[in-house]
Amino acid sequence: MYPAGTLRIDELSAEERAVYATLKPSHLPEHVAIIMDGNGRWAGHRSLKRFLGHQQGAKSVQLVTETASRIGLPWLTLYAFSLENNLRRPRAEVSFLMRLLKTYLESNLERMMDNNVRIRYIGRTRELPAEVQEKMRWAEEATARNTGTTLTLALNYGGRSELVDAFRALAAEMKAKNLSPDRISEEDIHRHLYTAQMPDPDLLIRTSGEMRLSNYLLWQLAYTEIFVTERLWPDFRGVHLLEAMADFQRRERRYGGLGEGCGKVEEEAGQMKIAAG
Ligand code: FPP
Known about the structure:
The chain is built from 10 helices and 6 strands; from the N terminus they run H-E-H-H-E-H-H-E-H-E-H-H-E-E-H-H. It is of the alpha/beta class and 277 residues long.
């Protein structure tokens, strides 16, 4: 159940409202993470340059965030730029993505304020160009007191490098406190992740049909439900976010335990004889 004060259902489109009406309020995901994929293919299918696909992808970011904020989704985390994108894409594309991010923050700040959205970032953001970092800080500070959806952009992010950063910080802490490594718990690792202040994602959406995690939130996705759609990110809209949530509600999350309807198993196990030899 999302906090009633954050709901703006009357602002959903009729199509979105129809899907939203099918959702059980008691069983909504708190945190949705998205791998936004397919910008290049979207452009290619239209014989357009790749950068136009990214530009259209930025529009999807804005529209999906607004729908998330209208339904009161507390956490939305988008994979906007990976460490691998930074290292392996042509410099011209990387610098276009950096300019696009800057422009996005500048031109969407007002809409984020209107939608009560708080923006944050995860990743090795200190390696991004100084003027991009400056704009990022500006948007983060301006939206810091908003109380609706927290939009987290993963920028220069890699799941393995996040774990390296967490282990380094944890090792330094253990050394300073003179603690033995066998005191390390899952909670200690969680405390040092970029996402320490957030719950783990309940639902991961990946667009454009690829069945990969692509080094995204490796620790945090341990028990996350995965929804893959063939739709390319520039065509993804708020209504598709709601459809993914409806699919999520049809899943049974077991966290390694037994599902509902397995109440008789204990009884049966008690009666079961183990065959000798
Ligand atoms: C994948 O498409 C997407 C990216 C590499 C970056 C995601 C960027 C955006 C959605 C736009 C900018 C975002 C913000 C927040 C302003 P791809 O190029 O890998 O597509 P392809 O697999 O079809 O080539």
